[in-house]
Amino acid sequence: MKELVLIVEDESDVAQLLRYNLQKAGCRTVEATDGAEALRAVRLDQPDLVLLDLMLPGMDGWEVCRILRSSEQTASTPIIMLTALSGEEARVRGLQCGADDFITKPFSVREVLLKVRMLLDKSSALKSHQRKRAETETQLSYLVHELKNSLSIIGGYTLLASERNDTLGYLGRISSTTEHMNQILNDASLLVRLEKGAPPAPLEPLELTEVIEETLDSFRIAAGDKGVSLHVAGGAGCRVWGERRTVHQIVTNLVSNAIKYNRTGGAVWIQIDEHGNDINLSVKDEGPGIAPDQQHRIFEKYYRCPGSERVKGSGLGLYVVKLLAESISGSVQVASDTASGSTFTITFRKAGDVAPAVPMLR
Amino acid sequence: MEYRKKRILVIDDDADHLFIARELLALEGYEVLTHQSPFGVIGLIQAADPDLVLLDVNMPSLPGDDLAAFIKADDRTRHIPIVLYSSNDEDRLRRAVVQHRLHGYIPKGDAADLRLKVGYFLQEHESDGASYCKRLYAAD
To answer: pTM score > 0.80 for this model?
Structure first.
């Protein structure tokens, strides 16, 4: 989207000169000829920068500037003052009102365009920095909440165990809560790495069934607790392009979900199929399924389906799976219906002689 | 006069927290009712007539502070003291308490603290139910 510059100027030939050159430089423009009109335009059009003539009929440029600075919405909108007054007095007053820069009439068009570009770039960098900071704050407060919650559960069971003099009854819950904390911290540190756009790991040929068997070992207890059986079929000798830790984490998150969201006594079906140059790994559960209108949202960061509150989760697992799959040139899909459960399918590239190009992460 | 144990209703969407709160408070001699959903609470409060409601905040389908506002907006339930019980940032909890005129909040985290504070809130409600709120107002 092109940036929008508001030109506040009552001399029409000056306004025209500015409009022509700004548009030629790739900006959109709106115009106002006095202070009141300028304030209205700012409110309605929300420009990215204001070029503000000082000598306006009625309300002057200093006053407009003061008003813009006093409103939260426009407090940081870049303002360049245009003035025929070259004296120190006018500049000091302008700075006191909060202007970012000055241009003295008659002006050089090149100078105007350079200053506009500089301020627009600075302001967009600032906005993106603020967005990132807000995102980091959300992430941090989420983490703090989840960890505090888990600690409070562990503390509660510990206190009960000591007061009741019965440790065994609570150990299972304490251990599964620490496992939950571990999972959250793993996902969070992975996220930091993935979102930072760390250079992708070099791909290596992997024996898929081998990674799956390794991963499943850590789930035997959790599956047993819920009476869920784990089945692996196909894939003998299938080699895919991947990176061991990445594939391990993908399988971990999918199997963990397939157990958590399964029915008691259900099964998890892991299947490997070859399709030409692709190898599909599907993980199927016998849980309640995902409603069609939720399916496109489950890979979003922090998204959790309504009704899934009873199952512990961070809203990060599938988002991480998606980022990880993409980091090794793979993809993830879901098929689900409320009768038979959900199937998540990861498509890998079959390991041949030439490794596929790794996409640059965001 | 008929003696009745103090009755506490705990609302949380997390089964572990419900279990722990029920066990810990029952050990103190309270009668504890638990409910694992933010829905159906108004009817439950009317039926159970608790002396105190402990309310979790972070429930995605209906956050506890919103639920508290509903309880306080309903003539049949607004007299029941509500205490938020949450791992959220304490500033946010304090604001919610002031905004919805609740009885107070207890941060999740220290299980022993839960019992102390519940006892304190129940006692305070008998003597002067509004004093905690007043202190919060004064602090803001």
So the answer is: no
Cα separation, A51 vs A65, in Å, equals 10
Please report, for chain A, how many H helices and E strands are present, in that order. 11, 12
Q: Does B112 touch chain A (CB under 8 A)?
A: yes
**ipTM summary value:** 0.81
| B128 falls within a domain | yes
How many domains are contained in chain B?
A: 1
Contact B109 A304 (CB under 8 A): no
Integer-rounded Cα Rg, in Å, for chain B is 14
Cβ contacts of A237 within 8 Å, gap of 6 or more: A207
Bridge partner list, A283: A270, A344
Give which of B111, B104, B72, B102 is closest to B90, Cα–Cα.
Answer: B104
Contact B87 A149 (CB under 8 A): yes
| Domain limits for position B18 | 7-139
* Chain B CB contacts of A306 below 8 Å: 60-61
Looking at chain B, which residue has its C-alpha nearest residue A172? B16
Q: Is residue B1 part of a domain?
A: no
pLDDT tens per residue, range A221-250: 888 888 999 999 998 888 999 988 899 999
CA separation for the pair A151, A148 (Å, rounded): 5
CATH code, domain carrying B48: 3.40.50.2300
Residue B2 covered by a domain: no
